[in-house]
Structures are given as C-alpha cells and as structure tokens.
Design a protein that fits this description.
- The chain is of the alpha/beta class.
- Helices cover about 50% and strands about 10% of the residues.
- The protein folds into two domains: about 5-160, NAD(P)-binding Rossmann-like Domain (Rossmann fold), CATH 3.40.50; about 165-280, N-(1-d-carboxylethyl)-l-norvaline Dehydrogenase, domain 2 (Orthogonal Bundle), CATH 1.10.1040.10.
- The strands form two sheets. The chain has a six-stranded parallel β-sheet with strand order 3-2-1-4-5-6. It has a three-stranded mixed β-sheet with strand order 7-8-9, sandwiched between helices.
- The longest helix has 30 residues, at about 165-190.
- It is elongated and about 65 Å long.
Length: about 290
C-alpha cells in the first residue's frame, strides 16, 4: 500500500516517522522543502509537488495550516489522485470548511474524511493520544484500519462531517481559556506575594475534571437557580479584589478584565443576586 503525506511540520513529521517505524512506505511533500527533505534520511521519499506526492497513492494524509491551505493543496493534487484514493485530513479547520469538503468530494465520487487530533508531536510519534472522526459511517469504517495504528484512540463522533472539527475547536478553546486564566492566577500570586508552590499544591488537591463538569452543569442551570451558592455580585467583588492584587505584579491580566465586564453587564440587567455562573450562560438556550 502506498501512502502520501502532505504537510510535514511538527505534527506531520511525527506521523511520518511513526509510519516509517511501522515499515510503511510514505511519500512526503511540504511547502518548505527542507522539512520534507529532513525525512528522507529516515526512509521517506520526497516529492517536489502535491501532485507528485499523491501519484499512485492509496491513502493521502494531510496536516496543513488551515482551510485555505487544505483547499489549495488538494486542488493541486486532485488531477493526480488515484481512483478510489482515501484522503485523511488531520488539519484543524473550520466546521463549515470540513462539511463543505466532505460534500464536494463525495459528489465527485472521491473519499475524504476529516480526522483532527488531540495530540502533540510526541503522541503522534508514539501512536498515543486521541483522534476524532465524523462523517459517512461507511467511510469511517474504511478508514479505521489506517487510523487505528496512528493513535491511542479513535473517537467516532457520528455522521455529521463538521462535528469532529467543532470538537477540536472546543477543546482548543478550553485550553486557551485555561492558559489565560492561569496567567491571571500567576499575576495575582505575584502581586499578593503568594508562592508558586502554594498555588500548585492548591490545584493539585482539586479534581479538575470533576470541577469542569460541575461548572458546565452550573452554567446550564444558572438562569433558573433559585438557591445560588455564590451570588454574581459577590463574585464580581472578588474579581475586583483579584484585579487589584494582580495589578501590583505589573503584569496585565488576560481573562479577568473581560470576565469582569461581562459580569457588570449581567448585574446591570438585574442578575446581581443570581448564581454567579449566570454571566457565562449567554449561550444556554431557555
């Protein structure tokens, strides 16, 4: 079986190295040729163009920058695709883009499946981590023998081709939110003279997964919660204190100013005595 890999940045290169470890032949292309060239010393065959890379390939993998790059590279490769070739796109893309490509390629009688990943390059190299797929059930079944050895788990999210893309973006957004929130925690700690080891010990004693799930449930119920455990006005007061302490560190807080502004809007609308999670409930219907 012949494989092509288009896009050999950090993640793509790790996937290629893992394929080579499994004694799988793979032809590679990258816009920056040196990144593809580096893999030839480990056994990969370098191609000068996307078309040359996919020529005769049974399976084509992609890990590119964004929707525009995926569309451009696939358009270049399309005339050279082998009939029946399976295209597996691991790029983080927009939801609409994933749905549109699935529809367009299906209408053309070609097999395209979006399969984004939750893994760092080391996970790709070690075939651990999580890969997500969504799309036509028959297509997913056809792809599983190829995807299974590449990851620790393949999560089938159903037949909507956009769900895998949406899930990947949701997880990435959560990661960014956590990072920005922790940045603010560190600003507070520095401004208040709180040792970093104390902060680590505090978080180490919390079940963060359970805490996250509990917060999601709290947000869903916030508009109808007649017994708040923490009123929004009191939470806003604590945010004010945290902002004041953080300012002493000389570092600008990232997430809290925006949270404070949103809290102020809800308080102005009469929710000051509601459960504090109400300020995060704008996206909750009902």
């Amino acid at each position: 079986m012949t494989r092509a890999y288009l896009g050999t940045g950090l993640l793509g290169a790790a996937f290629v190295r893992a394929m080579l470890r499994r004694k799988q032949a793979v032809r590679v292309w990258n816009r920056t040729a040196a990144k593809a060239q580096a893999l030839t010393a480990e056994g990969a065959e370098m191609a000068p163009s996307p078309g040359a890379a996919v020529e005769g390939a049974d399976i084509v993998h992609l890990t590119l920058r964004d929707d525009a790059a995926v569309d451009e590279v696939l358009a270049s490769a399309r005339p050279h695709l082998k009939p029946g070739a399976l295209i597996l796109d691991h790029t983080t893309t927009s939801v609409g883009g994933a749905r549109q490509r699935a529809a367009d390629w299906s209408k053309a009688g070609l097999r395209y499946l979006h399969a984004p990943v939750l893994m760092a390059p080391q996970h790709a190299l070690d075939a651990t981590g999580l890969m997500m797929v969504s799309g036509a059930p028959a297509l997913i079944a056809q792809a599983m023998p190829e995807l299974g050895p590449m990851t620790g788990e393949v999560l089938n999210l159903g037949d909507d081709p956009g769900v895998a893309a949406a899930t990947k973006l949701a997880v990435n957004l959560y990661s960014v939110a956590m990072m920005s929130g922790l940045s603010d925690v560190l600003s507070l700690a520095q401004g208040a003279g709180l040792p970093l080891d104390t902060v680590k010990r505090l978080f180490g004693q919390r079940d963060m997964t359970g805490l996250t799930l509990g917060m999601l449930d709290r947000i869903a119920r916030a508009k109808h919660n007649d017994h708040p455990g923490w009123e929004l006005s009191m939470a806003r007061k604590d945010v004010r204190l945290a902002l004041e302490e953080g300012a002493k560190s000389g570092h600008r807080m990232v997430a809290m100013p925006a949270a404070a502004a949103e809290m102020d809007r809800w308080i102005a609308d009469g929710f000051g005595h509601a459960d504090w999670a109400v300020f995060a409930s704008a996206a909750v219907k009902g």
